[in-house]
Write a structure and sequence with these properties.
Blueprint (H helix, E strand, L loop, with lengths): L1 E5 L3 H12 L6 E5 L2 H10 L4 E5 L7 H10 L7 E6 L4 H10 L3 E4 L5 H33 L9 H18 L3 E8 L2 H8 L1 H18 L5 E4 L4 E7 L4 H14 L4 E3 L2 E3 L3 E8 L6 H17 L5 E3 L2 H20 L5 E10 L5 E12 L2 E3 L1 H11 L2 H19 L7 E6 L1 H4 L4 H11 L7 E6 H5 L3 H12 L3 E7 L7 H5 L4 E4 L1 H5 L4 H16 L3 E4 L5 H9 L4 E2 L10 H9 L2
Parallel strand pairs: 1-2, 1-3, 3-4, 4-5, 11-12, 14-16, 16-17, 17-18, 18-19, 19-20, 20-21
Antiparallel strand pairs: 6-8, 6-11, 7-8, 9-10, 13-14, 13-21, 14-15
Length: about 575
């Protein structure tokens, strides 16, 4: 038996060793004269028991006891406290601090000391079993036995704690209640074994949609709850919800059975809806009920305005998926002219979306399309359609060009370059006739893949224009960092060109771009004054309502290409 004796009195240490040598126990002793020496010895090797003097200079035995208990292996050794004091309060203090026993030095005998060590070890083992039992019971009481995630009790306690702390942190939180659609039919048709396994698999898919900081719980047979913290707007919540719904689309294969599953989700928000946990649960439950009334695979916010925002975005996002197949998109084209002669040079393709005879401009749906990924298919359609249209218009006028807008999401699309090349080849259009426009917000998201794609587009012969220069994101550094051929000066500058500072800025930008040998396009030319300014500054190209609004193909054919 390995025993550590920590006592500053050598006489007492010898007395302890002599007493233990008289027992049948074979003991190996390590001695320490101070708390620091004792702690170092404890960290260097394993001991079956520690005999620890309460009263020592500088630091007493209680301090060592507490430090040992905080060590990684501090709960694996029995500790007996020794003292010359007969005060009961002292003995109680030692036991409360974690010692298994307390002995008076004047009462130490071989049999008493041996018995104390054996009893301390036994007591220690019982404490360990009790702790393990407590840990197991705590896990059972706080976790769902089937899925392993938190149960309703644990979730409600965590929700209460989170909400109590939020007023200080000023953090928002969202509660999601998720109910599986027609789960009862799975149990009825295939049995509870399939239903239980399905619940486990659904739990895994939901967990994969979360960042790891959210709390997920199974709070009923087929009902789950998720607590999302720091949800400053509905968009964050919407993204999480959409990931969950999307994850359930793929059929489950359980014990040879294919199961299709969806969910209805109700959402309440703290503190927007309420500041109490009970009401937060109630409101989310009401929202979930409404979601189920809307049909399968639906989401509903409790608060009416948030519900309106969510439904608007949700409907647009899902309608965009079918927009191409239902022929809902149209391209309008805004003519681009030379500033001096007002000669037609080309067009900028601008997408419009018609749903139920309602016209949607890009500001209504492009951001949602980028967030959902629908922008990739829409972007390819725009490229194909606009290049085809250019091939038609180039037959009577070979010098006509086409400007096409790209988003940052499209620039990381692996199929973008092949889409461009295939469209050029298919419609026999030269790459030099195509100019792709990028906003500076797209360049703010720049990474190596975007720069590689921009260089690849230039390599095949197409040009790249920097759109909306002069807005809040403008940076001259972008002209150095990215392969840019053309700069489009934002219309906001020309609308304010009557102001002296703005006029000076336009002149300075024009001079800079000319020095860098960049082509210049002035957007938003709506007055003769703005046109004359462009002519004076030798700006190459102009577009704006003064000469033409964006118009449809038939109107362009009639105006510019009719014989």
């Amino acid at each position: 038996m390995n025993i550590l004796i920590v006592d500053d009195d050598i006489v007492d240490r010898e007395h302890i060793k002599r007493a233990l040598r008289k027992t049948e126990q074979k003991c190996h002793f390590v001695e320490a004269e101070s708390v620091d020496e004792g702690l170092a010895a404890f960290r260097s090797q394993q001991f079956d028991a520690i005999l620890l003097d309460y009263s020592m200079p500088q630091r007493d035995g209680i301090e060592l006891l507490l430090e040992i208990k905080n060590e990684p292996n501090g709960k694996s050794v029995a500790i007996i406290m020794l003292s010359n004091s007969e005060e009961e309060a002292l003995a109680l203090e030692c036991v409360q601090a974690g010692a298994q026993d307390f002995l008076l030095k004047i009462e130490l005998t071989a049999s008493r000391l041996n018995r104390a060590i054996l009893q301390a070890q036994t007591r220690f083992e019982l404490e360990q079993k009790l702790f393990q039992s407590y840990t197991f019971a705590k896990k059972i009481s706080e976790h769902d036995a089937l899925t392993g995630v938190a149960n309703r009790y644990s979730f409600e306690e965590s929700l209460k704690t989170s909400i109590k702390s939020n007023p200080r942190n000023k953090e928002n939180a969202s509660l999601l209640l998720l109910d599986l659609d027609k789960f009862k039919e799975v149990n009825d048709m295939h049995g509870h074994d399939v239903g239980d396994e399905l619940l486990r698999e659904i739990t895994k898919r939901i967990q994969a949609c979360l960042r790891g900081t959210e709390l997920l719980a199974r709070i009923g047979g087929d009902e789950f709850a998720i607590l999302l913290k720091n949800t400053i707007n509905t968009y964050i919540v919407t993204k999480v919800v959409q990931r969950i719904l999307d994850s359930l689309v793929t059929p489950f294969h359980i014990k040879g059975v294919e199961v299709n599953m969806s969910a209805s989700i109700g959402i309440s928000v703290y503190p927007d809806n309420t500041t109490t946990p009970d009401e937060l649960f109630k409101f989310a439950d009401i929202a979930m009920y409404r979601a189920k009334k809307l049909g399968r695979n639906q989401v509903c916010y409790f608060e009416s305005e948030m519900q309106k925002q969510f439904l608007h975005r949700y409907k647009i996002e899902h309608a965009l998926v079918d927009g191409i197949s239902k022929d809902q998109f149209r391209l309008y084209y805004q003519p681009i002219f030379s500033a001096k002669e007002k000669k037609l040079l080309g067009f900028e393709a601008l997408i419009r979306w018609f749903v139920d005879d309602i016209l949607h401009v890009p500001d209504d749906f492009i951001g949602i399309a980028e967030g959902s990924g629908a922008i990739l298919a829409i972007g390819r359609w725009v490229i194909e359609q606009s290049i085809y249209q250019l091939s038609v218009w180039q037959q009577p006028n070979q010098d006509i060009t086409m400007s096409i807008n790209l988003s940052a999401k499209q620039l990381v699309d692996e199929k973008l370059l092949s889409c461009i090349q295939n469209s050029l080849t298919k419609h026999n259009v030269k790459a030099q006739s195509i100019e792709f426009e990028l906003t500076e917000t797209a360049l703010l998201e720049s990474n190596d893949a975007i720069i590689v794609m921009m260089n690849a587009i230039q390599t095949i012969g197409c040009k790249i224009a920097l759109d909306d220069f002069g807005t809040g994101f403008s940076s001259v550094s972008h002209l150095q960092s990215f392969p840019i051929d053309t700069v489009k000066i934002d219309k906001s500058l020309f609308l304010a060109s009557s102001e002296a500072k703005t006029l000076t800025l336009i002149k300075g930008l024009s001079c800079l771009f000319h020095t860098l040998n960049l082509d210049i396009v002035a957007e938003g030319i709506e007055t003769e004054t703005s046109l004359k300014l462009c002519q004076e500054l030798n700006i190459h190209r102009i577009q704006g309502y003064l000469l033409s609004r964006p118009i449809e193909v038939l109107a362009i054919d009639k105006r510019y290409f009719s014989k």
